[in-house]
Structure formats: C-alpha cells, structure tokens
TrEMBL record, chain B:
<dbReference type="GO" id="GO:0022857">
    <property type="term" value="F:transmembrane transporter activity"/>
</dbReference>
<dbReference type="InterPro" id="IPR003400">
    <property type="entry name" value="ExbD"/>
</dbReference>
<comment type="similarity">
    <text>Belongs to the ExbD/TolR family.</text>
</comment>
<keyword id="KW-0813">Transport</keyword>
<keyword id="KW-0472">Membrane</keyword>
<protein>
    <submittedName>
        <fullName>Biopolymer transporter ExbD</fullName>
    </submittedName>
</protein>
<feature type="transmembrane region" description="Helical">
    <location>
        <begin position="15"/>
        <end position="35"/>
    </location>
</feature>
<dbReference type="GO" id="GO:0015031">
    <property type="term" value="P:protein transport"/>
</dbReference>
<keyword id="KW-1133">Transmembrane helix</keyword>
<dbReference type="Pfam" id="PF02472">
    <property type="entry name" value="ExbD"/>
</dbReference>
<keyword id="KW-0653">Protein transport</keyword>
<keyword id="KW-1003">Cell membrane</keyword>
<dbReference type="GO" id="GO:0005886">
    <property type="term" value="C:plasma membrane"/>
</dbReference>
<keyword id="KW-0812">Transmembrane</keyword>
Length: 660, 140
C-alpha cells in the first residue's frame, strides 16, 4: 500500500512539474507570438511606418494570392473529391430543405388568401350580373304580386268574381306560396338550383297573371286600394330578390374562405417531399419555382384588391400593376455535372452551394415577411373586401373629402377612425376596446360622418419651427424635447414612371404590398434626356441608357426638415418608409408638406393624400392621427411632376401646440 | 508457526496509467475549451483613432460588421438589411443592454455605419462601441 501511495504521489508530482513547465513555455510563446504583449521600443516616423505597413500588406497579399493559386491547382483524388462534395452538400441540403418547407407553408397561406380574394371578386361580379338579370323580373314581380291579390279579391266578389276563371286565383296563390317558400330556402343558404327555381317560379307567375285583364271601374279601384297593404309583405319578399345576391355572395364567401386550399404543383411538391435524393441544383430550381408561385400569388392578391377598389375585373386590374420580380438568380456552377478535380473547383462548388443556401434563406425571410404582413392585414383586408363594414373605406372617403374641401391650416381629425380601425384589425392591443367601433360597425355612412365637433385651425410659425424643430422617432411623455419634431430618417425607393399623372394612387406599386429592404425592382427607364440633365448637373449615375433601372431601398438621413429624395427625376413615383416608436398609445398632430402630390399611410391606414402639382409648404396639411403603443410604420408615396421632389413630416402632441 | 512466503505477496494495482490518462484528459479538455471560441470577426481594416477610449474586450458582445463594400455582417455571418433589422429588433426585446461592437472597415460607406447606429438607437440599444485601431495603443 505504501508503494502504491508513493508511486502515485511521485507520478502526480511529475505531472505537476510537467504542467508547470508547459505553462511557463506556453506563456513565453504567447508573449513572443502576440506582438501587443511585447514591449517594443522601436520608433518610426509616421510616414515610414505607413510605408512599411503598406509593404507588409502588399507582401502578405501577394503570398495569399500565391497560396490561393497553389491551393486551387492542387489535384484531388476522385473518391476524395466526391466525398468532400457530398459532405458540403449534405450539410446545406438539410438547411435548404428546412427553409423550403417553411416557404411552402407560407406559399400555401398566400395562395389561400389569393383564392379568397379572387372568390370575392368573382362573387361580386356574379352578384352584379344577377342583379342586372333580376332587375326587370323584379319590376314584373311587383306588379304580378299585386295582381294576384286583386284577382283573389275579384274571385271572392259575387258580381265581379264572374270575370275570373274559377279556381284561377287559388292556383296563383299556391304558386305564390311555393315561390315564397323557395325564397325562404334561398335565405337559409345559397344554392344555385334553388335560385334557378325561384327565377322559374317568378317567371311562371308573371306569365300566368299577365294574361288576365283586370276590370276598370271605380268600385274596384276603391277596394283595390284597401287591399294594397296586404300585398306589401309579398312585395317585400320580392324585393329581397334584389338583396339576395349580396347575401348569397357573403355566405358563399364565408364558405369558400373556410374551404380555400392551395395546392402545390405536383413536380415541386414531389421535390420537396423527397429531398434526400435530390441535388442542391434541383432544390434550388424548386426554390426558384416556389418564388415564382409566391410572386404570382402576391400579384394575384394585389390585382384582386385593385379590382375590388376600382370595381373592375381581375384582368384589367392586372394590366395596371407592375408584376413582382424574381430576387433569385441562376447559379451555373451548381449545374456542373462532373466531380471537382482540383481544390479550386471544389471551392467554386462550395461557394455555389453557399450561394444557393443564401438565396433560399432570403426567400424564406421574404416569404415570412409576407406572411406576417398578411396576418396583420388579414382582418383589415377582409374589411376592405366587404365595403358595407369598411372603416378603411371610410378613411379613404375622408381623405378624398379632405383633399378637396379642407381650408389652409384646417386640421383633419382621423384619430377616432384610426383607433377604431386598429382595434378592428387587432393591431392595437394598447388602445381602448372597440366600444366606439361597435357603435359604428356596419354603418360606413356614420363612419364618414364621424367628424370633430368643431373645425380646428393651426397656424405654424414657419421660421420659428424650422429653427427649433428637432429630429426624433421615439416619443415618450417624459421626453425633455417638447414641441414640433420632424422625421429625418427614411428608407427611400424610386423612381417608378408615373407618366406625369399625379393622381394615379389607385395603381399600387410593390412597396404598398410589402416592405422588403433587400428587394430589387424594375423602375423608370433611364433616357438620354435624363443623362443630359445629369451631365449638366455633373452627376454620374452609371445606368444603362434606355433600360429600366434596378431599384433598391436606400437609407437616407436628412439634415433639415425637408427630405429630398435621392436619384430625383421628373414624372416619377417614390416611396418613403420609416418606423416611429411611442411609449404609450396617443393622438398626435402631424404636419405634412410635399412637392408634388403625396399619399400617407400610418400602420397601413391611409390618412392623407393630395393631387396635382404643388410646391412644398411646411403647413400644407394638418392631421390629427392616432399612434398605437410601440412601433408604428409610416409609408409615403410621393408623386413628382417636373423638377423638385421633397417631403416634410412633422409631429407634435396636440396639447403642446399652442395655436391648436 | 511459519507462514508461507506466497501468502505475503499482495497484488498491487498500478495507478500510474490511470493518473496519466486523467491528466492527459484534463489537459486536452483545458486546451479544447480555450481554443473553442466563436469567430465573429470579419476581415476588415478598422479605422485609426488616437482618442478612442480603451474598453475591455467583451466576449458576449454582438458583433455587427460592415465590409469595405458596405455589406453587413451579423456575428461574423453575412446579413441582409432585413435580417439585420430583425436580429437587432429581437435583441432589443431580449437584451437591450447587451454590448454591440461595430466593426466597420475604414473604407466602408459612412451611410452604412449611420444606418446601423440609427437602427441601434431607434431600437433602444444604447451600448454600442466602435472598433478602431489605435496606433499608439497597439505599439506600446
């Protein structure tokens, strides 16, 4: 036992010595290797140091290049190369597969949404068609139902009843009862067969009664007036025919909403289900096809929305829209059929696989963003799609009215409408519950009439505000900065061509459906005229002439109240987007000035627009708006005519603005 | 009474290999743990500064990089503008006090630097430091 303990202690002692020695040598090596730990008394002049640094950098760069070249030329055995390639692809395949499954789910959601919207548009056009068909029949029915009552009365009259064939009125009443039963069936649920039966029954009644001539005498007229009230119920029911299509479409729509399902085309679905035996190139192809499907789905939804707004059909709406563009690109290196033979080729393959993974990841991000936007807008969209309950429409009407009728300095109060609209859409959890909204629900007229008690006017001291206003995007009640603040930080994208039409807000461009800072879109064509103007101003833009420029979001921060758009051209459309933060939900006064026309959305709700050419003015327009607690998004669409294009957006609490 | 010699020979367990193995494993894990450090840095030449305040390195700092061409990196990985917004928004919700180290190349577009700083400021991320190269500090 003694021996064991002695041996162990001796062994431990040896290890301790070894560890201590290693640590000492390791420490010395670190001090030697890490230059910052060495005390170096070398003194250089700055120029000499820079020259030496540059030389070292150049030498290091040359060595790196040489090593890279040598590495790239190093040969690989076929088996080893295959193994390495498989390893690289296996790792990324799992990630790409996971992302693609997510994209697929999002696509199915987007497609279901598109189908719902499409159904809305189709149902609306069906309703219009039915109304058109039913209109003459309805007029005939009104007369016919009156006549049936007359005939019944006539038949009962001893003297006059002789003029009516026996049992004729009774049979007509039976037909009428059947007709009314069919109407009730139709009320309970839409059924095309029942609708056809109702139409047939109505036509049959009209035909039968139109053959009968009613007598013309005073006694008959007097008694006829007495029984008119009795026919009123029947008339009302006949009138329901007019409303039926609207109800039908609403019910039909509710059903299709539940049943709307999006199916993925078979080849892509198959690829996504069996990813293990698919190459990265095949998965990338599937991703590109999915992107195309998503774009088509988004375009379809936008076209349906536009068709609903403008009352047109889908196809004509589609022609007015700019289609979504593919953000993914082909990667030729992915398609190389052979196994890499050198390290350089292997690196290229690796880069291609990484690029494919990056593109799929971006597609996933974009799709998720679309899905989030869809979720937040879903209830708002459904409100837009059913005009009878649309507060959004009310807001739209209000701003149309405001743009045409408001006086300079007059404040348009849309805060109450915004509060209601946000609580309806569920985007505002901080605000008061929709008590006011419930009062207004289903009554767009009352929503339109929801105006402030008295007109309020703001007089801005332009010089004072320009001198004292500060930039800011975070607002809290305890902030030491009081008074007017201006928004100086924006993401800007443009120009798109507006053909000089400064009222064309109805044609939405991509930023209205999604804010994707990584997106690239096709914009206005760069003409020789633009090039000449640029050249006169000494600007070099690097665009290819007569080809549409590629647009991306640009971050800009303005050093003054007025924000100028970059890359300004005439007859063009720009979008500006920013977020602002509020510690608590509250109403604020905003002052907007634009050159030329502009439209403003806050949290997706339109709050202001003007039209035509106008110079910038600090107090061009005032709104009282509602901001929810947390982050609020602001989107501005700026339409430029000739020359300058700028915007100012100021915010102030209503109680602080003294003139208010 | 005499006892046989064989009964006195006790079996001894040799501890030496076990001790060797234990120490080797200890050193292996020690070195492996020291070496395993996530590389968040990107290849940039930081701007020079002579007045920067030296701050102790924070291993937990989130590193946002901006390359010479203005591309963004988040924790050493390339990041799109959307991703950068998303990551910083999530960070502001979970750890608003966490340090953010901005590694921007000296030649990076200044607009990109402002953009990152603006996102941080807007999202309430106040603990932002900028990595610089101090010639004096690095020499002494």
């Amino acid at each position: 036992m003694k021996n064991i303990t002695a041996n162990s202690l001796s062994r431990i002692r040896k290890w301790c010595w070894l560890t201590a020695t290693l640590m000492v040598f390791g420490g010395l090596a670190m001090i030697y290797l890490i230059p910052s730990l060495r005390y170096n008394q070398l003194e250089f002049s700055r120029e000499e140091a820079e020259t030496r640094t540059q030389e070292v950098r150049e030498r290091a760069e040359a060595i790196r290049e040489q090593q890279k070249k040598e590495r790239a030329e190093r040969q690989l055995s076929e088996a080893h190369a295959r193994e390495l390639t498989e390893e690289i692809e296996k790792k990324e395949r799992q990630e790409i597969t996971r992302q693609l499954q997510n994209v697929r789910e999002v696509y199915e959601k987007l497609e279901a949404e598109r189908l719902q919207k499409l159904e809305h548009v189709e149902n609306r056009s069906l309703a219009e068609r039915l109304n058109k068909q039913l209109e003459p029949l309805r007029r005939d029915m009104e007369r016919t139902l009156e006549k049936i009552d007359d005939l019944e009365w006539l038949e009962a009259d001893k003297d006059l009843g002789k003029q009516v064939p026996e049992g004729f009125a009774e049979s007509l009443q039976k037909d009428r009862k059947k007709f009314e039963e069919l109407l009730e069936q139709l009320d309970e649920g839409y059924n095309k067969d029942t609708l056809d039966e109702v139409m047939d029954a109505a036509k049959s009644l009209v035909e039968k009664t139109s053959a009968v001539e009613l007598p013309q005498n005073k006694a008959f007229d007097a008694r006829r007036r007495q029984i008119l009230w009795a026919a009123r119920d029947s008339l009302n029911k006949a009138n329901e025919l007019i409303d039926a299509p609207d109800q039908i479409t609403a019910e039909q729509n509710a059903k299709t909403n539940e049943n709307a399902q999006a199916t993925l085309p078979e080849p892509i679905a198959e690829t996504l289900e069996q990813t293990d035996n698919k190459s990265i190139a095949e998965l990338h192809d599937a991703a590109q096809q999915l992107e195309q499907l998503i774009n088509e789905s988004i375009d379809g939804s936008r076209a349906a929305e536009l068709a609903m707004r403008q009352g047109t059909d889908i196809e004509s709406a589609r022609t007015k829209l700019i289609p979504s563009e593919s953000q993914m690109s082909d990667i030729p290196a992915l398609r190389a059929p052979d196994t890499p033979t050198t390290l350089g080729e292997l690196d290229q393959r690796k880069e291609a696989v990484n690029e494919a993974a990056r593109q799929v990841s971006q597609l996933n991000q974009r799709a998720n963003q679309m899905a989030q936007q869809l979720n937040s807008n879903q209830s708002r969209d459904s409100a837009t799609m059913s005009p009878s309950t649309s507060l959004n429409q009310a807001l739209q009407n209000r701003l149309h009215k405001a743009s045409s009728e408001s006086q300079p300095g007059e404040v348009q109060d849309v805060s109450a409408l915004m509060r209601m609209a946000m609580s309806q859409s569920g985007s505002d959890s901080s605000g008061p519950e929709g008590q006011e909204y419930r009062n207004i629900e289903g009554s767009p007229e009352s929503a339109n009439d929801f105006s402030p008690d008295s007109k309020q006017v703001v007089n801005l001291d332009g010089i004072n505000i320009t001198a004292n206003a500060l930039p800011g995007r975070r607002f809290s009640a305890s902030s030491s900065r009081q008074g007017w603040l201006y928004l100086d930080t924006w993401y800007v994208i443009g120009p798109w061509d507006n053909d000089g039409d400064l009222r064309s807000f109805d044609i939405p461009l991509p930023p209205e459906s999604e804010i994707n800072f990584d997106g690239a879109y096709t914009g206005k064509v760069y003409t020789p005229q633009h090039a000449r103007q640029d050249s006169e101003q000494g600007i070099i833009r690097g665009y290819t002439l007569n080809e549409p420029r590629t647009l991306r979001w640009n971050f800009i921060q303005s050093d003054s109240i007025r924000t100028m758009v970059p890359d300004e051209v005439s007859n063009a459309t720009y979008y500006l987007h920013t977020d602002i933060y509020f510690e608590e939900a509250r109403d604020m006064l905003i002052a907007i000035g634009s050159d030329d026309s502009a439209k403003v959305w806050i949290n997706g709700f339109p709050v202001w627009q003007d039209s035509g050419q106008s110079r910038w003015a600090l107090g061009e327009h005032f709104n009282k708006v509602y901001f929810k607690q947390g982050y609020n998004s602001i989107l501005v669409r700026l339409e430029n005519g000739p020359q300058r294009c700028e915007l100012s957006f100021l915010i102030c609490p209503p109680e602080i603005n003294k003139a208010y | 009474m005499r006892l046989s010699q064989a009964n006195n020979n006790k079996i001894e367990v040799s501890m030496a290999p076990m001790i060797d193995a234990v120490f080797l494993l200890l050193i292996f894990f020690l070195v492996a743990t020291m070496m395993k450090k996530e590389d968040k840095d990107i290849e940039i030449t930081p701007p020079e500064s002579i007045s920067a305040i030296k701050k102790p390195a924070d291993d937990k700092a989130v590193v946002v990089g901006i390359s010479q061409t203005g591309e963004f990196f988040y924790e050493g990985r390339p990041a799109s503008v959307n991703l950068l917004h998303q990551e910083l928004r999530d960070l502001s919700a979970s750890e608003p006090d966490r340090q953010i180290r901005l590694d921007a190349d000296a030649q990076a577009p200044f607009n990109s630097v402002v953009q990152v700083m603006d996102i941080c400021q807007f999202r309430g991320l106040q603990n932002v430091v900028i990595r610089t190269y101090d010639e004096k500090y690095n020499r002494k």
